[in-house]
Amino acid sequence: MSTPHTDVEQVELANTAFYEAMERGDFELLSSLWLAPLDTSEDDVEGEGAVISCVHPGWPVLNGRGEVLRSYALIMANTDYIQFFLTDVHVSVTGGMALVTCTENILSGGPTPDDSDELGPLVGQLVVATNVFRRTADGWKLWSHHASPVLAESGEEEDDDTSG
To answer: Which of 84, 116, 121, 152 has a 20 to 30 A CA-CA distance from 128?
Structure first.
């Protein structure tokens, strides 16, 4: 396999690694993909490091490494199976920042029934996501992840007749 030569390719790999870590339930790898206080750069005027943030579908904003990583630990502990099929992936890099937008086509396994070793019913979900990365000495790291559910169209046309 060849080494990625462009920033866009490197960001694509970092983005893919994020979703693969979720699929494998690899909390250690997932944690290493997020900005850490030691990842600060010269442009950090306050000297406190970049504060990471995350919005999971239907959740409030989570700020700070502790809150964000705790949320992933909870998700991993309570999800028996998850798989992401990414579509509409767009990467934009400007200087030391990168923006990735994509559609997460998620397939996840429900809770395992008490009397069985098999997964519960599979559930599909469509989510749009924005991932913001920052360049560090160790490569591209996640700064922010924001995911929002896509409302399914009902297929029914609304009655526009208001004349009662």
So the answer is: 121
User: Tens of pLDDT along 48-101?
Assistant: 567 999 999 999 999 999 999 999 999 999 888 999 999 999 999 999 999 999
State the helix-helix crossing angle for 7-24 and 65-77, rounded to 10 degrees: 50
Q: With beta carbons less than 8 A apart as the criterion, state whether 112 and 70 touch.
A: no
Contact 87, 100 (CB under 8 A): no
Expressed in angstroms, the distance from the first to the final Cα of the chain is 67
Single-letter residue type at 46: E
Question: CA angle 90-68-59, nearest 5°?
Answer: 80
